[in-house]
Design a protein that fits this description.
Blueprint (H helix, E strand, L loop, with lengths): L1 H23 L10 E8 L2 E8 L18 E2 L7 E2 L10 E4 L3 E3 L2 E3 L2 E9 L4 E7 L15 E8 L1 E14 L5 E18 L2 H12 L9 H13 L3 H14 L3 H13 L3 H12 L4 H13 L3 H14 L4 H14 L2 H13 L4 H13 L4
Antiparallel strand pairs: 1-2, 2-5, 3-4, 5-8, 6-7, 6-12, 8-9, 9-10, 11-12
Helix pairs in contact: 3-4, 3-5, 4-5, 5-6, 7-8, 7-9, 8-9, 9-10, 9-11, 10-11
């Protein structure tokens, strides 16, 4: 009995000594598989991979160092396990928002990332609840969140294991594990429009809603991406109440038009033109011109010259409107008027350029 108690005390003393020694060590480089961290933004969502990077060092990797298929671990639970997808601790992947991984819906959060690779390049990617294990030695299949088939690609030589992202778009990306002469690709997809809209609603519960820029930027995103236009109209009204400018009226009108009421949108714009500044009218005129509404653009530019007859810039813009229509006579007259008003260097150069194109200089 005494001997048993002595052994327990000895084990406890040894454990405490080791723990104390571990906590007392200074931080030193981790070799030969240094830690790494890579992050990619997709839309407004982030994907982060935290891993350790082994190197080939002349070794045979696939089928040897990384055995093909599922493998029984040398210690731990003696269970059949996948590859740890790196070295040392678990490779951890973290998603800031819900995501589809190879078509599977995965909640936001952190997951252990594992792979299985076979001799024919077929394989699996696995996400697990286990995020604090040492490699896959203590892998428990019941903790898997997802398994999905993947297919490895042959690639150029990568000496040190590297995670990278390719084919990044607004909604999607491919996570690539590159090592030796293989790439193990995993497809990721975010519902970016839904994520942006939900995030905007949350952000506009705070200080951003006390400035017109917040709701205006949210409304502009919804309009540009044709998503939840009813909410976009609410945001445009909030922005307009704080900043009753022509730009905010134009934003609201465009949303109304996108919702299918062109008549109401046109009436709203026409009623606001009378109060528009020189820059407002000029910007709106060019918007119409670039959109192919040449006659309407000329009408707006003409209104601007009536409101600001001594501005060389507005006569220059009217000249561009007539030039686009092919009305050479009125274009020359407008550019001559611009040049007679002592324009700045940029406006003068623009008017002279068009005059030369028409053979009027």
């Amino acid at each position: 009995m005494l001997r048993s108690s002595f052994l327990r005390l000895a084990v406890l003393s040894f454990t405490l000594t080791i723990a104390h020694f571990s906590m007392s060590q200074v931080t030193t480089p981790r070799v030969p598989s240094p830690a790494a961290n890579v992050t990619q933004t997709v839309g407004i969502s982030t994907v982060n991979v935290n891993y350790s990077r082994p190197s080939v060092k002349g070794r045979e990797i696939w089928g040897k160092l990384v055995p093909y298929g599922w493998n029984v671990q040398a210690f731990g639970l003696g269970n059949s396990a996948p590859w740890r997808a790196g070295a040392n601790e678990n490779t951890i992947i973290t998603f800031s928002h819900p995501v589809k991984v190879e078509g599977h819906d995965i909640p936001a959060g952190s997951y252990g990332l594992f792979y299985v690779i076979n001799a024919d390049n077929s394989g699996e990617v696995i996400l697990s609840k286990d995020t604090k294990s040492w490699g896959s030695f203590f892998y428990i299949a019941a903790n898997d969140v997802m398994r999905a088939p993947i297919h490895a690609r042959d690639n150029s030589m990568t000496e040190t294991l590297t995670y990278d992202f390719s084919n990044v778009t607004k909604n999607t990306a491919e996570l690539d594990l590159n090592w030796e002469r293989k790439t193990l690709p995993v497809k990721l997809e975010f519902a970016t429009d839904e994520i942006v809209m939900a995030n905007a609603k949350e952000e506009l519960k705070g200080a951003r809603n006390f400035n017109f820029v917040g709701p205006a930027s949210a409304a502009n995103y919804a309009l540009a991406n044709k998503v939840d236009l009813d909410q976009a109209l609410i945001w445009s009204n909030q922005a307009l109440a704080q900043n009753p400018s022509f730009a905010m009226v134009n934003l609201k009108a465009n949303i109304i038009k996108a919702r299918g009421d062109s008549v109401a949108a046109t009436h709203l714009i026409d009623s606001a033109l009378a109060n528009g500044s020189e820059n407002d009218l000029n910007t709106y005129g060019y918007t119409l011109l670039l959109g192919g509404q040449v006659d309407k653009a000329i009408k707006v530019f003409t209104m601007n010259t009536q409101k600001n007859p001594k501005s060389a810039n507005v006569w220059d813009s009217l000249g561009e409107g007539y030039f686009t229509k092919g009305d050479k006579k009125n274009a020359i007259a407008s550019f001559k008027k611009s040049l007679s008003l002592n324009p700045n260097a940029a406006t003068r150069a623009n008017s002279e350029k068009f005059m030369k194109q028409m053979g009027a200089m």
